[in-house]
Amino acid sequence: ELWGGWRMKLALAGAILSKADLLLLDEPTNHLDVDSVGWLVKYLNELRDTTCVIVSHDYSFLDKVASDIIHFADLQLAYYEGGWKEFASKRPEVISALPKRRTQSYFAELTGEYEALIRFPDPGPLQGVKSRLKPIIRFTDASFQYEGTDRQILKEISLKMSMTSRVALLGRNGAGKTTLLKLLVGDLELTSHPNNRGEIWRHQNLRVSYIAQHSMHHLEENLLLTPVTYIQQRFFQGRDHELAKMVTFALTEEDKAMMAKRGSICEITGRAVRGGQLCYQVKRTGRRDDETWEPMSN
What we know:
alpha+beta; three-stranded antiparallel sheet; globular
């Protein structure tokens, strides 16, 4: 049930408590906030009588903890004494061959100068929105708390986003960044807890794509398959078996009661991918409100 940095913290805690003679760390800074990375650097540097082997693309982190660098290329291992800076000075041709997005971040820390150019694709016009400055998502005093917990994750959040918005969410692990994203895309609603208040409005024609922190887990389950074999197995006999799992998922009595409360679908007026899943725009019997977008699993 943990997400992002908390998963990595739990994995690190398990490794540390094992008091191993050999500590193997595979991308240990993934999803960690700045404070957690700083703590990990301090812990590793204070370790005694323990050998650490670290795989990481965070070169600043490597430079702070590594005493030696092993470069793996062309099926061979080359050993270099010293940290990342020493390795970079000895093998500049290796550094120049690295992807720019990595080398720029590393040398930016050394020089203190860094200019990033980020270009987003134009999503095209949104039906019903004439101005790109007009809000397409709006939060008004939104507060959120998960069912079964006594901690309020978000409190009285108000924000607006337009077609021109480019927003970065920064915060410590557990601050509520993923929760806010899920509320933005509609994976969570303000109805799951009595303490949840406020309003979230999204333009009815809004198209949302959401790449979650752990969106690769589905692919990781099929790492041994080639792309062709994966497609063959998933769409065997012309059916999407992953989608079939959702359709045939057993409904609880609570699910059935909620479906009855919503009313039967009397008309389907649209279809789109929203929040990373296939949704239909539907009208239900006994409902006077506007057409709503609902996931296929409903």
